[in-house]
Amino acid sequence: MMRKPRCGVPDVEYGTFKTRRRRYSVFGSKWSKTHLTYYLQHGKDLPRSTQSQVIEHALQYWSKVSPLTFSRVGHPSQADLKMSFGPRTHYGTSGENTCRYPFDGEGGVLAHAFAPPDGRLHFDEEETFTDLSEEGTNLLYVAVHEIGHNLGLRHSNVRDAVIYPAYLGYKPDLKLHSDDIAGIQSLYGRDKDLGKSYDAHNSTERHQASTERIVRIVFVWIIIVVGLVGNSFIVAVLKSFPRMRTTINYLLVNVAAADITTLLFTAMHLIPIQGPFPNGALGSFLCKFVYTNNITMVTLLVTTLTLTLVAVERYHALVKPLITSRRVNTDNIAYIIVGIWAVAIAMVLPLFVSVDHRPNSNSFCSPGDKMDEMKVYVYCLMALLTLIPFLAIAFCYFRIISGLYFENTICSRGQGPSTPQELGEKKRLVVLLMVLTSVFFVAFVPYGVALILQFSGMANSSNEKRVIFGRFKTAVQYLTLLNCSTNPFIYAIPSTNYRCCFSNNNDDDNDNSNDNDNYNDNSNDNGNDNDNSDNNDDDNDNSNDNDNDNDNSNDNDNDNNNSNDNDNDNDNSNNNDNSHDNNDDDNEDEINNENVDNNQ
Hints:
It is a single chain. Helix content is 50%, strand content 6%. It is of the alpha/beta class. The protein folds into 2 domains: 6-190, Collagenase (Catalytic Domain) (3-Layer(aba) Sandwich); 210-493, Rhopdopsin 7-helix transmembrane proteins (Up-down Bundle), CATH 1.20.1070.10. The chain has a 6-stranded mixed beta sheet with strand order 1-5-6-4-2-3. It has a two-stranded parallel ribbon with strand order 7-8. It has a two-stranded antiparallel ribbon with strand order 9-10. Keywords: Calcium, G-protein coupled receptor, Hydrolase, Membrane, Metal-binding, Metalloprotease, Protease, Receptor, Signal, Transducer, Transmembrane, Transmembrane helix, Zinc, Zymogen. Ca(2+) 3 binds at residues 104-105, 124, 127.
């Protein structure tokens, strides 16, 4: 998680910030009176009148939910709250507003304040403070936050609270969280009339904000449900229908499993965390597995390796069919899939080890003092996840496309020219796999860019860039979710076999469904016979006599034209040398599909 602009209070005067059982926390001191005076020394960014209005408005946030009242005075010696803008080193000379805690420049500590009875509040003049704008740093947000410290509140660990330690950007509907209100009222009590007035005044804003959040959460969960149903269907088909258990389908199921995991964990990260961030083992678990994207990194790496393996396997099946020792088959596919997950976990393991719950850090979940090492690691990881797989996949599909469309070197299993039907099926499969891979990289490359920007510090250079980066990162996360949800529709819905499995229409008489099946061409990758073709009924024995084109033929000798052993008097089946013209209609499409299987 990137370093966020934040308040410097916990690290300045009051020790480290520790999460407590209750969400808000107090310094243990408060003002002994309810009417406080304040003095403002103006800064340089906004007109003086605007600065005065913003500070007055910020004070009203607290006066509306408590018995506190405020009035402005003309000299700091007369003020309880002394507010000023200062440079990086702002010691001062008068003694009224001196400070021994320097700022760290733009984008770091925005301001710091001192608890009662001190009352000093210092804004970093190197920040670009703005009003009613997403550019720069919103002065109202920072002022409300720091005044809370002046009144005796420590940081809250509720992310939506104004007193939360990190600056989260401009909020047009800025309001006190219930946790902020509970904190200030624990110190000064509650003025019932003012409290009710505040609640009524902000009810419309709270409703609008909650509506926006509900819409976002509903959208996320629609993506989740669609993705889980679609990917679960792919897994269920492979489990329920043995004829679908080919090497390509096993690899696509591995992609589906990775997508299911990505959907669950990425969605949990997108949904805002309500309530306090827990300490101890639970906080560490949330940082390592939920609040950061470590799990998503594992699943994206699994998908990348799997799609790379699919491209390499297709390359060997179509371009190098005689080199069977390098082929993936049903005997070794399980070991390969386990190996893919093991490699992915091992590559992301440094993130799991370094990222932890650090309440004293600028962000609750961070690598701590290992940030520089993590930068180098992330750059290398992104290279492995994008550049190398992309080059390997591009090479494999370039050779395949060249052989299919230009050189015409993709032959049948018998090393003769492929039939138009065989070429068509091979082309459809290659195009589909290329689309699947391209869609993944379109979704994943922006994710890698966002991760690099996060660790490089570019997102922290200015508030404007920080806001843009935050929106970009959120859009990338939604894009990742959409990719995981649409994958099943890309490679399953176009398949007749998947649709037939979905409708439970898998009877032997529906063999024509295999004509458009683009995924079973790996069923004989290891040179084994296709059991489906050997178990045909007696009426389909003609399919076993397709000399030179079908390896499962029982009469490979071209001279065996006089065989008359076929059941049900199918004598014409012996004259099918070098052709498939006389196959029984009920099995013709299955034979054509099996020829493609054996040729690959």
